[in-house]
Structures are given as C-alpha cells and as structure tokens.
Design goal:
This protein is an all-alpha fold. It contains five helices and no strands. About 60% of the residues lie in helices and about 0% in strands. The radius of gyration is 12 Å and the shape is globular.
Length: about 90
Amino acid sequence: MPDPARLARLRFRAWHRGTRELDYIVGCFFDRHHPQWSETELAWFEDLLAAEDPDVMGWAMGTLDPPARLAGELMDAFRRLDYVDTSR
C-alpha cells in the first residue's frame, strides 16, 4: 500500500500543472489509474510530473515522442486520453 502522503502529493501535483488542459489530462489520468499502480508505476508517474508542460502535452497529443524511460504501456495509456472527464 503506497504512503497516503505520497499519493496526496502526487494528486496535488497532477491537478496543479499550470494549465487547465494539462490539469485535466494529468489529473484525470492519475485519478483513474493510480489505485492499481505498483511502486514502479508510481515512480514512472513522478518522472512524468517532473517533465516540462510542453513536453507532457506533446506526449499526450502524440506530437512528440517520449523519452525511452517514459515509453511503454503507461505512456500508451496516457496517450489514449479516454480517461479525461471535463465535467469537473
């Protein structure tokens, strides 16, 4: 079970990226997927959060290729954008 304080920090950072669009993309992705994440997947998400906003947006939209360390199943899920709920 992940540390509740760590999850709270990640959720806050996910929902406070600086632009509304990325708040929805990153925040909704975290809310939808984090309950089933392992330690490795949480570390991946922390790495994603450390990236610059234009890069994260490019990765989400598929206009930029992610670095090798972020490529894979989680990035594929991130790029689907089927988790975004704009009713908030």
